[in-house]
Structure formats: C-alpha cells, structure tokens
C-alpha cells in the first residue's frame, strides 16, 4: 500500500510539473501579458512561426493557451 501511495504521488508531481512547464512556455511567449501570443511575440521561435497559422484555429491572428497547447516545438 505504501508503494502505491508513493507511485501515485510521483505520478501526480510529474503531471503537475509538466503543466507548469507548459504554462511557463506560454507565459514566456505572451510578453505583453494579454493572454494571447501574437505573430510578433511568436517570432522568437522559428518552429512556432512555421506552425502559427495551423495552430490559430479561430484565425484571429493570435494563439490562446488552448491553441498553443498543440504546438510541437
């Protein structure tokens, strides 16, 4: 039972860390803090620029966190 609890704790911490890292990536691109990544903010990453139009599902010229979560960088 103790081993199961340890394994579940490690799994939970791993998932929480992955979510934190993803959130930090979004925040690091969203330099103006408006909750979206513009094309000019994305220019710091060539892979993001290449995928930008495909990721921008609603075609508003910005990536929200949901759209950015599909970024494969």
From TrEMBL:
Keywords: Signal. Transmembrane segments: none annotated. Residues 25-41, 49-71 form the EF-hand domain. InterPro entries: EF-hand-dom_pair, EF_Hand_1_Ca_BS, EF_hand_dom. SUPFAM superfamilies: EF-hand. Gene3D superfamilies: EF-hand. This is EF-hand domain-containing protein. The lineage of its organism: Bacteria, Pseudomonadati, Pseudomonadota, Gammaproteobacteria, Alteromonadales.
């Amino acid at each position: 039972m103790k081993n199961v609890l340890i394994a579940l704790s490690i799994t939970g911490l791993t998932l929480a860390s992955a979510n934190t890292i993803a959130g930090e990536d979004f925040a690091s691109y969203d330099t103006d803090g408006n909750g979206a990544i513009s094309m000019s903010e994305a220019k710091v990453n060539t892979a993001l620029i290449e995928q930008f139009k495909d990721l921008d599902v609603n075609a508003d010229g910005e990536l929200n966190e949901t759209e950015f979560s599909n970024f494969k960088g």
